[in-house]
Amino acid sequence: MKAKAPRLLVSDVSISNPDRVISKKGEITKGALAEYYAGVAHLLVPRIARRPISLLRCPVGIDGECFYQRNVGRGLGPDVHPYVFNHGGKKIEYLYVEDTKGLIELVQMGSVEIHPWGATIDAIDYPDRIIFDLDPSPDVSFEALKLGAEDLRRRLSRKGLKSTLKCTGGKGLHVTVPLAAKDDWATVKAFGAAVAEEMVEQVPEAYVATMSKAKRTGKIFIDYFRNDYTATAIADYAVRAHPGAPVAVPLEWKELKTLKSASQFTLADVLKRVKNKRTDSVSAVKAQRIPG
After folding, report:
1. Closest C-alpha to 251, from 182, 168, 177
2. pLDDT tens-digit profile of 116-129?
3. Distance between CA 191 and CA 270 in Å, rounded?
């Protein structure tokens, strides 16, 4: 008689094949990934609950084939819900979760990365954040990227806006302004474009605000396009599908000085970091309005 594959119960969700190695670097297993997400759920879930989500699923692990998914499809679990809306004359379906159980059901089905919208389904036309994704060309040093983040922070501050910082778990940094969900997508994107273009105009040797990769050599791309309707960005505390499974982590601005890499935080690092922590730097910044 064939023995049943082992399972692990995490947040009342049965995790199949918990010993499957999903990242050879670090020997990270599917079970460890589920336990990580459960361990940070008190901080992560409030950032993604009732938001349309795109997933990066890697059913056999980070080193295998991965694919994006944004609709419920089959098998994602009873706590993963569909969100259907019309946009541009087309009917579009995304998925969303409301709690920790829904989050862990995503992991059970092989999800690694979680990319939420900048708005909830309850106010889908009014984003509650504006994100500037600072994406460096390969020949730009991390120290230069850090200076760019500080520059952007100062510019936003002069406009009366407080911002938060996040290392993305990849190569870039996010500077985010929490919003009061009172300004529509067009207004938010236009403001993001104006800030990016101001930086390019004043320091053209350091910044670029166009998607053309041919023009990015030696520069930092100020990506404000993540503030489009249907655009997403990696969630706070979400794992990246890169070797070693680095994590996207919100930071205090004072931590930027000693930050060595945008992908330096491991699952273990973050679990230790958030232990007994009920809030973080993002929670401390109040929602704001785009200046008139």
Report:
1. 168
2. 999 999 999 999 99
3. 33
